[in-house]
Amino acid sequence: MSKAIQDWPNDSEMQNYQYKKQVEAYNQVCNLPNSDNFNADILAKAQIDWPDDYEMQLYQYNKQLEAYFEVMGLPNTGDYHKEILNKAQQDWPNDYEMQLYQYNKQLQAYNEIQQLSNTSNYNEDALNRARSDWPDDYEMQLYQYHQEVG
Length: 150
Fold this sequence. Notes:
Blueprint: H1 2-7, H2 12-30, H3 37-49, H4 54-72, H5 79-91, H6 96-115, H7 124-133, H8 138-149
Helix pairs in contact: 2-4, 3-4, 4-6, 5-6, 6-8, 7-8
C-alpha cells in the first residue's frame, strides 16, 4: 500500500486499485510453477528486474516463458539456424524475448543476403568486405553492404 500511496498521493481510489492489482499479482506470482529450472530462472530474473512490482514480475514471467517455448521450437534445419540461435543465446543468456528477436532479425538479414546476387546492382566485393567486417552479424553485413552500394 505504501507504494500505491507514493504513486498516487492524492487519489485514494487509484491507491486502492493499485493495491488490489498488486495483491492479485503477488498471489499469482506465489503460485507460479517452478518445477523446471527455466521457470525458476525466469521468475528470479523478473523479481530482480521488478522488485516492488508484482504485476510487472508476472507480465515479464509470462512473456519470457512464451518466448522460451518459441526459442525451444525454432527449426534446426541448417547450420546457419544453429549459428544464429547460438549467437542470440550467447548475447542474451537470460532473456528469451531478446533471443527470439535477435534470431528473427538475423535470420531475415541472412535470407536477404542470400538474395543479393539476384539483384541488378549486386556488388560481390562490397558484400565480402561486409562479411569480413561483421563475420557474426548478418544485420550489420546487410547494413554495411547497403551503405556502400547504395
